[in-house]
Amino acid sequence: MSVLTDLIYAGSNAVAGLTEGAVNDAIEKYGADQSISFGDTAYFLPTIYAATGVKVTTLGDLPACVGVMKSLISNKEDLGEALNAGLATAVGAEIIEALKFVGNPDPYADEKGIGFVSDPIIRSLGVPLVTGDIPGVAVVLGKADDPAEAVKVVKDYQSKGILTFLVGDVIDQVLDGGVKTGLELRVIPLGHDVTAVTHVVTVAIRAALIFGGIEPGNLASLLQYTKERVPAFVNTFGPLNEVVVSAGAGAIALGFPVVADIDLGENQVPGALESVLDHDETVKKSLELRNIKIKVTEIPIPVAFAAAFEGEIIRKSDMHAEMSSHKNTTCEVVLMKQKDEIEDKKLTLIGPDIEGEGPVELPLACVVEVAGDKMQEDFESVIERKIHTWYNYMEGVMHTGQRNQFRIRISKEAYESGLRLKDFMEVLYDMIINDFDAVVDKCQVTFYTDKEKAAEILETVAMPKYAARDERLESLSDETVDVFYTCILCQSFAPAHCCVVTPERLGLCGAVSWLDAKATNELDPTGPCQIISKEGCLDEVKGIYPDADRMVNEASHGALEHVTLYSIMEDPMTSCGCFECICGIMPEANGVVICNREFKGMTPTGMTFGELASMTGGGVQTPGFMGHGRHFISSKKFIKAEGGIERIVWMPKELKDDVAPRLNKTAKELYGIDNFTDMICDETIATDSEAVLEFLTEKGHPALNMPELM
Ligand code: SF4
Ligand code: ZN
User: In this structure, which ligand is nearest to the CA of 520?
Assistant: First the structure.
């Protein structure tokens, strides 16, 4: 036998033995009826569920799984067979980790790692993964001989926006090395035991179930999905024991290449398992093996510029300067100009910079003027909204808010590195020319930090512009435009999914409005957003358009024949999985329940967000369930076919408060109802179906008197 297969089998057999023992012990201690669950997931023990279709809910379900696991270990001298044994290790690791949760809902409370990753977090990763904001996923495992080397590698991934999971003692090495960790910072410690690697394996596996619509039990298509669509890879630090090697074999079976920092000699498997002894080459080689290309935007500013810094928070004590609407005049506005009205790359600061003893407080009116043959006034707001993202890409800069209500903080460290306001202008100029080159030929930026000048700009330029834009947005409806757009950005994860984006129904991720789709189409006419003609509308209430059918049929590669824009019961729009909210019917209330991704509690349907969400996804139509953006809730088109917003009977309180002003306005306009949200139940009032019904009856909720939903 080769050394490699030998090691894999030794590891798999060891893990199988440990797992079997642990299962037997647990059954003896707690009984076979004891429930077992990772917590916030609708996919049971995800690896076992996806690979076999078995829904493990109690300890009594596990012995059969141990049997399946053992059957994967053939001990035959063949690399393919040995990789299957690696999958057995993954199953064993999953069981061992799940057992930690028996009788202890938070076994990771005292760990530096987070352990299990919930379904809603995976859904929230959908958009950044498809847009390339997160270009790949690294699993870094083990303990580096020289901690500084591990720190260097992890920081390099972080600066490239790679989502990095840490397993083993490398966690302490990276934390001691001063790397900031957390989901927003893209570096996530999982746990110290090697079995904690299961928590990233199940992320990949649930991606296949959530976005890919993979049927549980179809192991072959599961492995094909993870190989083709999950851009993950593994780096190991330090010596490899047999368990690590067999876990690595599991990774390879899923299609994730492994780069080890020890010399594996002839045991290397080109493309799948390779040795890279020089840590300066680790990152490059890993990205190459997984074919991950990093988009670098080289901007000549004194701090780093990358998506990885987006979530950075700057506290008051770390702050050198602040431009805040709470204290001073602020506004940011993008204006379309004629080409001869502006000078390309003219960057002007009128007023003081952020020099001097901190904290420096300044007003800031930021005026960005753009011109181009294909520029349209409608694209101003699309560009303007990106300012927030770009500023946050700068290390040591935090931006919140928009328009005339924003706050920018600049850290002491960034200031000491030399960051000044001209660098902000440089960022705006470079990014606009880079990202909007198809519509912008010329761009000039002016910052006003002079108190009086800033106030003048706010009053005479910015406010009138915002007002005009709001008027334009108000007047935009599905009736007043000529075309809708498709969006198929999410197809890299949900190959059959297609959003139809209209002025009144934004993409279900919440990130793509009709104006965004229009701009995307203009920037890249053969790209993800294609024009849908409104001609020949067959049903205005349900929203049935022949061209929408045709485009969705094409985009779904024939999987879908019909789609309605405004019905949840008849050919509803499909979901990829990254929706902000999920809407599901509550038959006993003759209405619908809406739940947002952030809500962790139970809904009156008896399902959590994750469980509701699992009812739809992967580009499949599921009448009665529909993913959508937050903003759609107050739309006149929201499930119009079923009677509209009057069907909404329950929402989490936070969501209800957030949408209340707009939703109440729509209810008043459409039905003459005042304060409609007072009639909608939430978790602070009731979550069990009977109590919800009681509340609705007491409030005289209109859904109770509407035609039967089913
Ligand atoms: Fe994905 Fe739809 Fe959002 Fe496009 S609009 S990014 S397809 S969820
Ligand atoms: Zn999506």
Answer: 1
CA dist., res. 205 & res. 219, Å (int)? 11
As beta bridge partners, residue 411 has 319
| Ligand 1 atom closest to Cα of residue 499 | 2
488 CA to centre of ligand 2 in angstroms: 8
Residue 511: CA atoms inside 13 Å, Cβ hemisphere, count? 16
Give me the count of residues in the chain: 710
Compute the average pLDDT of residues 454-482: 95
**pLDDT at residue 1 in the model:** 55
DSSP 647-698: GEEE--HHHHHHHHHHHHHHHHHHH--SSGGGGSB-TTT--SHHHHHHHHHH
Instruction: Say what the pTM is.
Output: 0.89
What tokens does 664 get? 């109440």
Q: How would you list the strands of the sheet with 581-586, edge to edge?
A: 625-628, 581-586, 591-596, 648-650
Given a contact cutoff of 8 angstroms between Cβ atoms, the answer to whether 262 and 238 are in contact is yes
For residue 573 and ligand 1, the question of a CB distance below 6 A is answered with no
Which phi and psi (to 5°) does residue 377 adopt? -60, -35
d(CA 602, ligand 2 centre) in Å: 24
Residues 310-364 have pLDDT tens digits of 888 999 999 999 999 999 999 999 999 999 999 999 999 999 999 999 899 999 9
Residue 576 beta carbon below 6 angstroms from any ligand 1 atom: yes
- Interhelix angle for 219-229 vs 198-210, to 10°? 100
Answer yes or no: are the C-beta atoms of 22 and 63 closer than 8 Å.
Answer: no
Match 């957003």 to its residue by tokens. 529
Neighbours of 467 (CB within 10 A): 10
297 pLDDT tier (thresholds 50, 70, 90):
confident
How would you list the strands of the sheet with 347-350, edge to edge? 330-336, 364-371, 442-448, 347-350
